[in-house]
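Everyone, carefully examine this protein record:
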Amino acid sequence: QVVLVSGHLDSWDVGQGAMDDGGGAFISWEALSLIKDLGLRPKRTLRLVLWTGEEQGGVGAKQYYQLHKENISNFDIVMESDEGTFKPSGLGFAGSAEARDIVTEIMTLLQPINVTDVYDTAAGTDIAFWMRDGVPGASLHSDISKYFWFHHSQGDTMTVQDPNQMNLCAAVWTVVSYVIADMEEMLPR
């Protein structure tokens, strides 16, 4: 059984793609690194996917889905960060009402950093195939007030990233992915 965390590398046209979506790729990598460094071994596999080709029609996600869809019942949740890694506010979630209640409870663990909101929908080109077929999905919500200042521009460089805000995003990704991966049962469909 798999809990998938992901981001993609796509804004290569004019900038470095640090915010879109290098930040999402980084916090996904960091979540798994933190779990490993802490010596935690969840019941399910945590899988990192760094998508490619999102801007070219989601070809990387489509190929991955084609290769793994026969095991769709083993995917517990698919998570994608693609709206920058600014100050996080919560998690977008798509799934059953029962699963939403569980995710809402998990988010209370993040009260010390004031990131507890669960929004009505999850977004992510790369996880859309999975969510369409009933796999619960999650997307990071962060303060996007500056997102389009840098989106697909020459300004999308590492100087846009705030290490403290990225750490908070990584904390959200780490807690949510680990707790779901270590629960006795998969999220209800």
